[in-house]
Structures are given as structure tokens and as C-alpha cells.
Write a structure and sequence with these properties.
- The protein is 77% helix and 0% strand.
- The chain is built from 17 helices and no strands.
- The protein is globular.
């Protein structure tokens, strides 16, 4: 319970003579609780304060990892990289880049590069992390590296190649005490199973249902929970249960709102697909408009491009060629494609 944690931590940090090491731990826990409750801006401010007040001048890795992750979750991929890269460089220069937290930082920064569209650099960074993790023989570090390599394979559309890597990470995490990341990884395996051709809806639902229980019992963020719920909704729709799919997608949308626009847009798009399949064109159109509004504020990244592409196809089915063409154009822009200057139309 993030709220109960914040209440308890407020009592701790109010103590005037609190030892520095206890105060630092309390401040970091406060930031993590804010992140878990979806209050990303407050978490970022708290984490920046922790790093700014580091009297020893050393980057505290847990705070740096969390800050990079929070920037990435809010779509600020450049800041996520700028926060993590100096710490990575310092670790490499000191020849201590093989520890668990160092590997976790590396894959966190790699994920930010990937989301920004620097796929080649992201893959190389992740591969170096895998190599260092295997050299150190750390189960936690290997799990983190396999996890990120799996995510990159999935984003490239190679779900069949991604699942074995994710399962290796899952096996390594199964014996750890990191229930939150175990749940997130289990959810990722389920989501990747939905991307297979044909999708493995039943197996995906099994992984996602188990992940949902574990997420509820951990410090998972609302974004993690909503993404899992959306996966369960897609699995239900594939299995023919449109009522359950609509209910879970609606709950995911209500829980996340505009805090995580990509997830909100995905939920709106899925609800539009459900309504379109049921013949409710006006309601489908309204959901698609909501999805477009949320996506418009998202920067360039492959996930946004994929969702724009799917929206274009759904709008085309709906008989809205103008909106469909606009979505396809936005998909191209979000993927990083640009027209030569000579071909650009000016008004």
C-alpha cells in the first residue's frame, strides 16, 4: 500500500535528529512509493532532491535508476538518458559496471534509448549488459539483462524469439524476493504471447492472471497494473468474451487516465475496436477520438507508431478516410520517418 507507506514515512522523516543514512533510505522509499502510486512528477522531484543532496558526490544507483525509469514512464526519454549515462560512464571508468544495480541501470538506460528510437545503440548497450551479467554470474543481473534483450526482440516483432529470453529471466527471478519485477516480467511474457501468430490467448491469460495477483501484492505502479489489465482484456477479446474485455479495458482506462497517455490511448483504442465489432459505430468513433487526443501528446517512439498504425486501420474500417490517413501519417512520423524537404507541402 503506497498510501500507508507514505503516511508511515512522513512520520519517520519528521524526526529532527534522524541519522543521515536512515533519512536517505526514507527519502528513497518515499520516492518509490510516489512512483508506485502513479505520482510521477512528485517522485521525480523527490529523486532529483536525493541526488542533488548527495554530499559524498557519488551517484546513488537506486535513486538514479528510479529517476531514469520515471522520466521514461512520463515520455521524457532524453532526460531518462541524460540522468543514467553519466552514472554508467562513472561505473565503467571505475571498473565496477558488473554489479546487480549497475546492470539494472544499463538496461534501464537502454530502454530509454530504445523508446527514443536509437534502436541500434539500445541493442548494443543491452548486449554488453548481458555479457557483463554472465561474466559476473549474478542471477539478478542476468535476469535484468535477459529481460531487456527479450523486450527488444519483442519490439522488433520477433515475439517467438523474445519469449525464450523472457522465460530464462523468469526462471532466474522466480527464486528472488523481487516480487514486483517477477510480476512485471510474467505480465510481459503474457503480452508477448498475444503478439504471436496466431496469438496464444489461453496461455497469455494464465500468465497475465498470475501477474495480476502478484502486482496487487507488490509495490507495482498503476501503469504496470493497467498494462496487465489491458493484456487480460485483449486475451478475453481473442477468446470471444467481449463483455469481460470491455469491462477490464474500461477499468484500466479509468485507473490510469492521462497519467500514462500511451496506456490510456491503447485502452481507448481497444474499447473502440470492441464497439466497432458490436456495430456501435458512433461509440467506436468517440473512443478513437479519445485515443487520438491522448496519442497526440506522445513523442516519437515505436510503440506510439504501432498504435497509430492500428488506429489508422480501425478508422479505415469505420469509414473515416481522412482520420485514417492522418493516423497513418502520424505512424510514419512517430517511427522517425521524414519526407525530404522537396516533397513537403507548405500551406
Amino acid at each position: 500500500s503506497a498510501d500507508e507507506a507514505l503516511s508511515a514515512l512522513a512520520g519517520v522523516t519528521a524526526e529532527p535528529d534522524l541519522p543521515d543514512d536512515i533519512r536517505q533510505r526514507a527519502d528513497l522509499l518515499t520516492a518509490r512509493a510516489l512512483e508506485s502510486s502513479g505520482r510521477y512528477d512528485e517522485a521525480i522531484i523527490a529523486l532529483e532532491g536525493i541526488l542533488d543532496n548527495d554530499a559524498a558526490g557519488r551517484p546513488r544507483l537506486p535513486a538514479t535508476i528510479a529517476l531514469s525509469r520515471c522520466y521514461r514512464e512520463t515520455g521524457d526519454f532524453t532526460r531518462a538518458i541524460e540522468v543514467g549515462e553519466p552514472a554508467l560512464t562513472a561505473l565503467r571508468d571505475a571498473k565496477i559496471d558488473g554489479g546487480d544495480e549497475a546492470i539494472q541501470l544499463a538496461v534501464t538506460v537502454a530502454a530509454a534509448y530504445w523508446e527514443r528510437g536509437d534502436h541500434g545503440h539500445a541493442v548494443r548497450l543491452a548486449l554488453r549488459a548481458v555479457q557483463r551479467a554472465e561474466e559476473m554470474g549474478s542471477p539478478a543481473a542476468c535476469a535484468a539483462a535477459y529481460w531487456e534483450a527479450s523486450a527488444f526482440q519483442a519490439e522488433r516483432g520477433n515475439a517467438a524469439g523474445a519469449i525464450p529470453l523472457a522465460e530464462r529471466a523468469l526462471n532466474l527471478l522466480a527464486h528472488s524476493e523481487d516480487r514486483r519485477n517477477l510480476a512485471r516480467l510474467r505480465a510481459q511474457v503474457g503480452l508477448m504471447m498475444l503478439r504471436l501468430d496466431p496469438p496464444q490467448a489461453d496461455d497469455a491469460a494464465e500468465h497475465l492472471s498470475a501477474a495480476r495477483v502478484e502486482l496487487s501484492a507488490s509495490s507495482a505502479s498503476p501503469a504496470d497494473v493497467a498494462q496487465c489489465d489491458l493484456g487480460l482484456a485483449r486475451a478475453a477479446l481473442l477468446s470471444g468474451d467481449s463483455d469481460s474485455a470491455a469491462r477490464m479495458a474500461t477499468e484500466a482506462l479509468a485507473s490510469i487516465g492521462a497519467v500514462a497517455p500511451m496506456i490510456g490511448a491503447e485502452a481507448s483504442s481497444l474499447l473502440g475496436q470492441i464497439e466497432l465489432t458490436a456495430g456501435n459505430d458512433d461509440r467506436a468513433r468517440a473512443y478513437y477520438r479519445d485515443a487520438v487526443a491522448l496519442l497526440t501528446g506522445v513523442g516519437q517512439d515505436r510503440n506510439a507508431a504501432q498504435l497509430w498504425l492500428e488506429l489508422g486501420a480501425q478508422l479505415e474500417r469505420l469509414g473515416d478516410p481522412d482520420a485514417s490517413r492522418d493516423a497513418y501519417r502520424r505512424a510514419a512520423v512517430a517511427s522517425g520517418l521524414q519526407l525530404p524537404a522537396a516533397l513537403r507541402v507548405t500551406v
